[in-house]
Write the structure tokens for this entry.
Amino acid sequence: MDINKIEPIARLINEFSKLPAVGKKTAERYAYYIIRTSEENARNLATSIMDVKSKITFCEICGNYTDSSPCKICRDRSAKIICVVKEPKDAMAIEKTGEFKGQYHILHGTINPISGIGPNDIRIKELLDRISNNETEEVILATNPDVEGEATALYIAKLLKPLQIKVSRIAQGISIGSELEYADEVTLSRALHDRKEI
Amino acid sequence: MDINKIEPIARLINEFSKLPAVGKKTAERYAYYIIRTSEENARNLATSIMDVKSKITFCEICGNYTDSSPCKICRDRSAKIICVVKEPKDAMAIEKTGEFKGQYHILHGTINPISGIGPNDIRIKELLDRISNNETEEVILATNPDVEGEATALYIAKLLKPLQIKVSRIAQGISIGSELEYADEVTLSRALHDRKEI
């Protein structure tokens, strides 16, 4: 009784295996769970999926996911400091540190000429519009420390220079708790170069 | 913007994290996928989940999952040899080898006095009923090679003895492709004991 030949199960396995990093084996395990779990559990999962699709939109200000626009952060927090990130999950990662109390700006991508993504394809114009309010004093560029992230940060920094706003870039160096021995050379030389007096 | 504080997303993450071996981090990744994927993809997943719940039942003969009872294997194959397994996924594992052309019998559990599971709690009576047809010539006991699986196999073997049916147990020994060095002692001594002349 190859479970994969029973049509409704085969279809479910196929759908599950579209989830990120889910292979055939894992999709089968999930399908088994659905078969065995209560009717209620299965229905909750199915309706949650549809709920997210129908209720989640983008915040008209920061571009993050929200169920009501503007999002809670754009409503409740000051725009004095705006942290610019590539994707919603980057904002979530920063939010989890509990260190940042300002607003976010989600670019939804980074400049990448090879993939044909230029400055007009990401939310840079929206950032400039936001800053023209005169409330913002600092913009933190928190794009990833890779080629596209660096290029995007530099591009935005150049645009913001004439506006007399403080522009900063998140620090790059050795990860906390890691060992020098295993750091890659680029990171290590950057860490040396950006050394701080103590 | 902690994504976990947006209610529909928080609920979806919670539902995803009920899947086997899915933690918070993975559930978040799945939720992000749902947010970003097409409406159609999300709907397909949701409806496949509900379809499986409404269409999948147990085969009245072998007890395996099926969308029409009796299942395809019980309809199409001879009952000359019946392979007894603990769970549907065990039947699937054997089916994948392509070596077995008989029918299955799913016990839906093994005898486990500690958990209060006795012979009457698993599908042993159904197995005896099936065999009374006089068609069956051999029963292969393919429960797991653990304490409960062994006990269950022995129990069933004893019940079948008076019926003059050939009863066999799957071979236990060193896994193909593994190394002696890493085999556990119990497996290794069993492999020595059950050695075959070549």
